[in-house]
Amino acid sequence: MMEIGSKLKKARLEKKLTQENVANLLNLSRSTISSWEVGRSYPDLDNLVAISDLYDVSLDILLREDAKMVKQLSLDTKQKKRIQTYNFFISHCHY
Fold this sequence. Notes:
It is a single chain. By secondary structure, the chain is an all-alpha fold. The protein has a single domain (4-92), classed as 434 Repressor (Amino-terminal Domain), CATH 1.10.260.40. Helix content is 74%, strand content 0%. It contains 6 helices and no strands. α1 (4-14) packs across α3 (30-38) and α2 (19-26) crosses α3. It is elongated, with a radius of gyration of 16 Å. It starts with a helix and ends with a helix.
């Protein structure tokens, strides 16, 4: 089973890109790309889509078999929804 960090590195190398190249193309830091590739952190969904397009690799291939990554994306999505709901409530609440 290959985790997403290994898949990202493999796909990047297949495209003959450096971490610096990818960072510049995605408007991120090189250390962010490195962190993803070694599994210290995960890209968010927007960055995953951009990476998928850049590397010409489907999201299914990137996400398949990495249960930790899928769980993290699910938690991130739920947290964003809670924040959006809270912000909506606050902006529409009249005291």
